[in-house]
Amino acid sequence: MKLNERLSVVASFVEEKRSIIDVGCDHAFLSIYLQENKHPKKVVASDNKEGPLAIAKENIKKAKLEDKIKVTLADGIKDMDSDIDTIIISGMGGRNMVGICKYESQKMKQIQTIILSPNNDVDVVRKEFCKMGFHIDKESLVEYKNVIYPVIRFQKGRKHYTKEDYLLGPILRKEKGKLFLELNNNEVKQKELLLKVLPKGYWRRKWEIKRELKIRKSI
After folding, report:
1. Does residue 182 sit in the same domain as residue 156?
2. 124-168, pLDDT tens digit by residue?
3. Are residues 142 and 194 in the same domain?
4. Is-contact 116 155, C-beta < 8 A?
5. Interior CA angle at 70 toward 16 and 107, to 5°?
6. Nearest of 210, 176, 182, 178 to residue 194 by alpha carbon
7. pTM across the whole model
8. What is the helix (H) or strand (E) element at residue 90, kind and residue range?
């Protein structure tokens, strides 16, 4: 199974011998790759849409992995098996990712590792998952179809982070790689444009944008 650039980075963050649920698995490309390459104890391909799951089942059958990948129609992690220790969610809005996990506190007690690649609201993702009792131990950026996406791995255990860490990434902001600088420059341009078009009544939003710009321009 060959993965696209984004899923390849997500897969590289997965540790071996883990019990994994791939939430929003779509066509199960990642689940198949992990079963073939990461020697997992278990892989569950989960989605809340029957259409993608039907295609996922066909792909798993073609890979001859029907007995090694469990396919389940489920909403988030509500029906997650009790032996799962790793959650993967990619290609979804950041606030949706938070919502999937935040209100399943009992289920989250069994989780050791979370690997996320949100489409947006990355600072919210960092902050909320850290509030759930996890810390960031690995981060990367990947360009896929001319868009730069983050990939973040959280491990069980707390650490202290600053507002700069949540906004920029505690690891990414130290490394200051090429994609990080490009993404930051893009964000500065977008926020400056937004600041110009916001109506006068949006004073709080303007204050938030100015605060963010101050951080981003200090890099």
Report:
1. no
2. 999 999 999 999 999 999 999 999 999 999 999 999 999 999 999
3. no
4. no
5. 75
6. 210
7. 0.96
8. strand 86-92
Q: What pLDDT is attached to residue 78?
A: 92
Residue 31 identity (one-letter amino acid):
S
3-class state of residue 132 by DSSP? coil
Residue pLDDT, tens place only, 162-210: 999 999 999 999 999 999 999 999 999 999 999 999 998 999 999 999 9
Q: Give the separation between CA 33 and CA 3, rounded to whole angstroms.
A: 8
**Beta bridge pairs of residue 169:** none
In this structure, the number of other CB atoms found within 10 A of the CB of residue 72 comes to 15
Q: What is the extent of the structural domain holding 190?
A: 176-219
The secondary structure of 103-131 as a DSSP string is T-HHHHTT--EEEEEESS-HHHHHHHHHH
Q: Read off the CATH number of the domain in which 123 is found.
A: 3.40.50.150
Closest among 86, 95, 115 to 10, alpha carbons compared: 115
CA atoms within 13 A on the CB side of 101: 28
If asked whether residues 14 and 106 sit together in one domain, one would say yes
What are the structure tokens assigned to 205, written together?
């939003």
54 and 154 share one domain: yes
- Rounded Cα–Cα distance for residues 154 and 216 (Å): 23
